[in-house]
Amino acid sequence: MDIAQNILLTIMTAATPLLIAAIGELVVERSGVLNLGVEGMMVIGAVCGFAATALTGSPWVGMLAAIAAGAFFSLLFGVLTLSLAANQVATGLSLTLLGLGLSGMIGESFVGTAGVKLGSIHIPVLTEIPLVGRLVFGQDPIFYISLMLTGGVAWFLFRTRAGLTLRAIGDNHASAHALGINVLKVRYLAVMFGGACAGLAGAHLSLVYTPQWVENMTAGRGWIALALVVFASWRPWRVLGGAYLFGAVSIGQLHAQALGFGIPSQFLSALPYVATIVVLVIISRDRRLTLMNTPASLGQAFVPDR
Amino acid sequence: MKKIVFALAATLAVTAVTSALAEDKYKACFIYVGSKTDGGWTQAHEAGREYAQEKLGDKVETVALENVPEGPDAERAIERFARSGCGIIFTTSFGFMDPTIAVAAKFPDVKFEHATGYKTAPNVTTYNSRFYEGRYIIGQIAGKMSKTGVAGYIASFPIPEVVMGINGFLTGARSVNPDFKLKVVWVNSWFDAGKEADAAKALIDQGVDIITQHTDSTGPMQVAEERGIKAFGQAFDQIKAGPTAQLTAIEDTWGPYYEKQIAAAMDGSWKGGESTWDGLKDGILSMAPYTNMPDDVKAMAEETQKKIESGELHPFTGPINKQDGTVWLKDGEVSDDGTLLGMNFYVEGVDDKLPQ
Known about the structure:
Strand order of the largest sheet of chain B: 12-10-9-8-6-7-15
CATH architecture of chain A: Orthogonal Bundle
Order of helices and strands of chain B: HEHEHEHEEHEHEHEHEEHEEHEEHE
Radius of gyration of chain B: 20 Å
Distance between the termini of chain A: 64 Å
CATH class of the largest domain in chain B: Alpha Beta
Helix content of chain B: 40-55%
Helix content of chain A: over 70%
CATH architecture of the largest domain in chain B: 3-Layer(aba) Sandwich
Number of domains of chain B: 2
Number of domains of chain A: 1
Oligomer: heterodimer
Shape of chain B: globular
CATH topology of the largest domain in chain B: Rossmann fold
Largest interface: A-B, 47 and 48 residues
Number of helices of chain B: 11
Largest sheet of chain B: 7 strands, mixed
CATH topology of chain A: ABC transporter involved in vitamin B12 uptake, BtuC
C-alpha cells in the first residue's frame, strides 16, 4: 500500500511550488496590482537558491537567498509600475523575459553541478507510521511552509485590519487614499511579498523537486500559478485546492499512462488544464460571488495627486 | 502567453547575435530548440558547433540561437538568420522541418541542414543519427539488469524517431529476455525537468526497476539515483546526475559531421537534397563508459557494440512481431530504412497504446 503514499507525496511535491507562487500573487492582486512576472521571479529564485546552496553548501542559505532574490527582483517591477506608474501587464511580461535571460546568465557556471537537496524532515516513530507517516511528518520543509503561508495569508487578509486595508486598496485605491492610507507603501510591500513567495517557489524547484539547475527549469509553472489565482477567485484556501487538484490530475495522468489503459496520451496531458477550466466554469457560475472577490482596481496604476 | 514571450525573446536574441557578427568570415548558424546547457540534446549540438569552430578556426564564424520554440516562431528565427548572411544554417530539431523547408524556398542561395527530418529540397539536406543502434545496446543491458523484467520509458512526442527508439530498446531487451515488458509515459515536452522527474517517479512506483528516456533533461536520472534504481543517459553523458544510477549513455557526437559540412559549404562541394543517416561506426553517436554493471553485462554490451559497428548485426533483424502479434519481420529479415524513418507502430511487448 506504500504506492498510495508515494503517489500522494509526488502530487504534493508537484503542487507545492504552484501553491506558494500563487499565494504570493494572490496577495499582490488583492492589493490591486497585476504582476505577470511570476515566472521570471520564480526562475530567479530557482537559480539564486541553487547558486547560494552550491557556494555555501547549505540549502537553508539557498532558500533564504532565493526568497531575498525574488523580493529584490520584484522591487524592480514595483519601482516601474508603482512609483513610475508604468503599464503593469507590459512590465510584468518584461520581468519574465528578463528573469529567464538573467537566470540563464547567472546559472551558466552552475549547470551540471550536483545539487544539494533540502532534505525531508524525519521524526523517529512518527515518520515511520504506515500509510500516513511520511505524508504528515516526513515531507520537505518548504511543504510545511507552504501550508503555513496559506493559513497565514487567509488569516491576514480576512481577520486582520491590515488585511482589510490591503483589500480596500485593491478594491478602490482612490477611496483608500482619501482615507489617508498610504496606497503605494502597502502595494510595495504586497509586491515584495509576492516576489519572495515566487522566489521560494523557485527554490523548491531547484532544491527539492529536482535538485539541479537547468535553464528555464520553471517550464511555465509561473503562468499556471497566475491562472490558479483567478481559478481560486482570489481566495487562499481555494488556491490550495486548485494547486492540489492540478497536481493530482498531472500526476494521475502519468500513472494512467504507465498502467497502459490505452487512453490517448495527448488527451491525458491536456487533462490538468481541462479539469482546471471545468472547475473554473463551475465556480464562476455565481457571478455575484466572483465580482465580490475580484479586486476592483486590479491592474490600474495609481498616481496619488489625481 | 508563453509563446509570445518566447517569440519576443527569440527576436531580441537574434538581433543581439546578428549585430555582433564579423562581416568577412563564412557564417555557419545553428538553431537550437533548447538551452545550450540542457545537459542533453541541445548541449550535444552545442558541443558539435564548438568542435567545428575549433577545427575550422578563423575562417568560420559560428553563431547559435537557443530556446527557439518549434512551429511558426521558428520560421521567423530561421529567416532572420538567412537574412543576416549565414551561408549554412543547421536547424537541430524535428519540429523545425516545415519552417526550414519554407525559409529555404525563399533563400535559394543559403544552404540548410535539418536534423532528424525527412523533407529535403535543392538547398536542404537532412542529417540524422542511427540512435536506435545505441538504444538496442541499452535495451540489452536493461534486459540483463532488470529484476522485474519491466522497464519504464519516458517519451516526448509520438513521432517516428521516438517510436523507433522505443522499438529499438525493446528489441534489444527481448534479445536477452524474451518476456521483457516496457511501460511508456508520454510527457509531451522535450524539456521539463520536473515533469520528466514526475514521470520517472510514476513509473518506479508502478514497479519498473530501470528507466530510460527520450526527453532532454537530467530530471529522470536524478530520480533514479535517489530511488536507487538504474537509468540510461540521453544524448549526453549524464553521469554527474546519476553517479551510481547511470549504466551508460547514448552520446550524440555531431562535431565531425558539422566540420565536414561547413567545410564543404565553403569550398563549394556541398550538395543539397541529400539525406545522411550515420550510425555508431561513423562516430556520429557513441556510448558513454559502461558503469555500475557486472562484468559479464559489460562484456555483452561491448560485444554487441562491436557487432553493430562492423555491420554484422542490424538491431532490427527478424523475427520481430508487431504489438498486435502480427509478423513485422520474418526470421533473418532486416528492416529497410524507409520503414524505420516512418515508424508508426510498436513491436510486441510494449504496454501502451501508440498515440496516433
